[in-house]
Amino acid sequence: MNAILESQTATNDKLSQRFIELDPSGYFLIFLDQQSGLICAEHYSNNINKQGLATDPETGEPLPCHGSLKRQPTACFKAHTAKELCIKIFEVPQTQWITKLDHAAYLGREFVRAEIALASGTQYIQD
């Protein structure tokens, strides 16, 4: 790994640890469908409690950060490119899927990372 890439990786790893407020409109789980050549983003609703934790709107229980949940997405978006996916979510919404600018910026970065992984045939892991 060259020095520039090492520096970029270190910077991004550090920034990934910062605190950000959760978006009350929900969250996205991003994954690839390599066989179909698609980037997929499932939207899930949530509520934010007084402690700032995302909670299940049906049960009021905090949502775990790790492990699997048995929830149904409120919407599923699929596209061949990051730009196409951003347009579907941000520019043609019938519902406001995003209410925080930092959440929108995060999704844009993640969609580009997913597109690169899709094009290169490598694994994508959401940050």
TrEMBL record:
The organism of origin for this protein: Acaryochloris thomasi RCC1774
Pfam family, one: PterinBD-DUF4346
InterPro entries noted in UniProt: PterinBD-DUF4346, UCP037673
Limits of the DUF4346 domain: 22-127
Protein's name according to its UniProt entry: DUF4346 domain-containing protein
Species lineage: Bacteria, Bacillati, Cyanobacteriota, Cyanophyceae, Acaryochloridales
